[in-house]
Write a structure and sequence with these properties.
Residues 33-99 form the UDP-3-O-[3-hydroxymyristoyl] glucosamine N-acyltransferase non-repeat region domain. It holds the Pfam family LpxD. By secondary structure, the chain is of the alpha/beta class. The protein has a domain at 13-108: Udp-n-acetylmuramoylalanyl-d-glutamate--2,6- Diaminopimelate Ligase, Chain: A, domain 1, CATH 3.40.1390. The chain is 11% helix and 26% strand.
């Protein structure tokens, strides 16, 4: 790949320093002074790059690898070509993530659009809004009456911060995002076009048609949460919609009113979570899954992609399928279905 000027290489980190920073052991102590400048996939890694490998199935990629170092665990280490230093760790994926953040810190959150950090005179800021020292506001952002924004936070171009919203310190509210009726913690990243705090979908059928139910709750987003581009989080109807500390939301997710998501969850793109669902800590939900309303998903649960979760899921379970069921049952059902199909075809039957 040609030189990427959007994310230029780092000035250089010594391998021994990188090993300490990511919690790895440098197996080749004579290479401690070699410099790492960037991250790369294994197959095209060059001098100055660090890469990682998780599976022996990809061992062929080492044939073209010329990396300065490879991050891996003990099962992969014997496959690394001689002469390439090894950064040994039990958690290579997490270690590589840490390395990437050290080498390319500007890629960790949406960057400022302008070279000068300031409060633009082209932004509309209500005189009653309170901004701590060091807040940046880009052109055409709007900050409503009584809003409070903490030190080190950047409000992107065209973003909207509604009246009385509270945003903590060191946050990034990206271009075109809107934050209404919300309390936002510290170090929160909201990507472009996200919609936070609009009213939830609530209507009561009546003789005159659908009667709108008022939504008078809030959205509470705790510290270190990341909200992907185009994701929508509705405010509560009468209670609050809550996103727990450290949770990461992918692009284009819909979170309905009164949903409560625990700490350190990971939710992939196109998931829809209906109203008043409670999700525990450390839950992982695969892309395009649909989560029914008024159910509870326990802590530590894993939901496979494209699942339909209709009822409560006990803590620690792995579920998949439509309707979602324990993974062992889902895989058994898939196997039986495949066997029936094969038998049908072998008997000369035709698909309808």
């Amino acid at each position: 790949m040609e030189q990427n000027w959007f994310f230029p290489p780092h000035g250089g980190i010594r391998l021994s320093d990188l090993a300490d920073a990511i919690g790895a052991t440098l197996e080749n102590v004579d290479a401690e002074d070699r410099l790492v400048r960037s991250v790369s996939p294994v197959y095209r890694a060059q001098e100055g790059d660090v890469c990682y490998m998780l599976s022996r199935r990809n061992r062929d990629e080492f044939e073209s690898c010329k990396a300065t170092a490879v991050i891996c665990d003990k099962s992969i280490a014997p496959l690394v070509p001689p002469g390439i230093p090894i950064l040994l760790t039990e958690a290579p994926h997490a270690a590589f993530a840490l390395a990437g953040g050290l080498l390319h810190p500007i890629a960790l959150r949406p960057p400022p659009l302008l070279s000068k950090s300031t409060i633009s005179d082209k932004a509309a800021i209500d005189p009653t809004a309170r901004l701590e020292e060091g807040v940046e506001v880009e052109p055409f952002a709007v900050i409503g009456a009584g809003a409070e924004i903490g030190q080190g936070t950047r409000i992107g171009s065209g973003a909207i911060v509604g009246p009385d919203v509270r945003i903590g310190r060191d946050c990034t509210i990206s271009a075109g995002a809107s934050v209404l009726y919300s309390l936002i913690g510290n170090n929160v990243i909201i990507h472009p076009g996200a919609r936070i705090g609009q009213d939830g979908f609530g209507f009561a059928p009546g003789r005159r048609g659908m009667i709108k139910i008022v939504q008078i709750g809030r959205v509470i987003i705790q510290d270190n949460v990341e909200v992907g581009a185009g994701t929508t989080i509705d405010r509560g109807a009468m209670d609050d919609t809550v996103i727990g500390e450290g949770t990461k939301l992918d692009n284009q997710i819909q979170i309905a009113h009164n949903v409560r998501i625990g700490r350190h969850c990971g939710i992939a793109s196109q998931v829809g979570i209906a109203g008043s669902t409670k999700i525990g800590d450390g839950v992982l939900i695969g892309g395009a899954s649909a989560i029914n309303g008024h159910i509870t998903i326990g802590s530590g649960v894993q939901i496979a992609a494209m699942s339909g979760v209709a009822a409560d899921v006990p803590a620690g379970e792995r579920y998949g399928g439509i309707p979602a069921r324990p993974m062992r049952d889902f895989l058994r059902d898939i196997g039986e279905m495949a066997a029936r199909h094969k038998k049908h075809r072998n008997a000369g039957g035709k698909d309808e």
